[in-house]
Design brief:
There is one protein chain. This protein is an alpha/beta fold. The chain folds into two domains: 115 residues, Rossmann fold; 102 residues, Winged helix-like DNA-binding domain superfamily/Winged helix DNA-binding domain (Arc Repressor Mutant, subunit A, Orthogonal Bundle). Helices cover 43% and strands 21% of the residues. It contains eight helices and twelve strands. The strands form three sheets. A five-stranded parallel beta sheet has the order 2-1-3-4-5, sandwiched between helices. A four-stranded antiparallel beta sheet has the order 6-7-8-9. A three-stranded antiparallel beta sheet has the order 10-12-11. α2 runs parallel beside α3, α3 packs parallel to α4 and α6 packs across α8. The two termini are 24 Å apart. The relative contact order is 0.10. Bound molecules: calcium ion (CA). Calcium ion binds next to loops.
Length: 237
């Protein structure tokens, strides 16, 4: 891929030199422009001063806890944050997503996997920004007219209960991002209901049955086991 002024800038926040070198080499070979930070504070400073399109964030940094870095990054940039972590525990994932991370990759991962996640993260940003202004949200065969409060699947109007609609809206407002159980419960039912995970699973099942053509192999409403749910911006082919 030719190098030019339009190569997307990727901020790498990672303290291990070897890992930084691996990421830098892989990104340069695939048309991205890496910017490197070795501490959380340095990463936040770069995010605030340069126009970054994607952030790759190591969760084990010497100065700041990973979720704290995500929170500070979110004050400066809406760029997707992909967390890179050696740990694969649900708790670690949940705290990263709760802080505002978009995706989570467990080390070790392949270059192909990383590039695929980066492409998905960037795809998800574009429709969100465009559709906010138009108040029409669309993802694959799903369309929501937010002003009118009407949902279409394959251009057929869909009947949703008020709770189902609210749940779908919260997911659509955060399209592409994993929403944790807590975030969804808070967004739909309010802060007093954040422990009622079973409500969520029931309503999610209803919503999926109405929206995904094959609820057993959902293409749009994806489960992140033990963590939460994600509405995809596009259907995988
Ligand atoms: Ca580290």
């Amino acid at each position: 891929m030719p190098m030019n002024g339009h190569d997307p800038r990727v901020l790498i926040i990672e303290d291990e030199q070897q890992m930084r070198r691996f990421l830098r080499t892989s990104l340069l070979a695939h048309g991205y422009l890496p910017i490197e930070a070795s501490t959380g504070a340095q990463g936040v400073a770069y995010a605030s001063s340069s126009n970054v399109e994607i952030v790759l964030l190591d969760m084990g940094l010497p100065d700041l806890e990973g979720p704290e870095v995500v929170r500070q990054l979110r004050e400066w940039t809406d760029a997707p944050v992909i967390v890179l972590s050696a740990r694969n525990g649900e708790k670690d994932k949940i705290s990263a997503f709760d802080a505002g991370a978009n995706d989570y990759l467990t080390k070790p991962f392949s270059v192909a996997e990383l590039l695929a996640r980066m492409r998905a993260a960037r795809r998800n940003v574009v429709p969100q920004a465009r559709d906010k202004a138009a108040s029409i949200f669309s993802a694959g065969h799903l369309k929501i007219d937010v002003d009118a409060g009407v949902v279409f699947v394959n251009d057929q109007e869909l009947h949703l209960t008020p709770i189902e609609y609210k749940l779908l809206l919260v997911l659509a407002e955060n399209v592409g991002r994993v929403m944790t159980h807590q975030q969804l419960l808070k967004g739909v039912w309010g802060t007093r209901y954040t422990s009622r995970t079973q409500y969520l699973h029931v309503y999610m099942g209803h919503l999926r049955a109405k929206i995904d053509n094959d609820p057993n192999r959902p293409k749009l409403l994806v489960t992140e086991p033990g963590v939460g749910y994600r509405l995809r911006a596009t259907e995988p082919s």
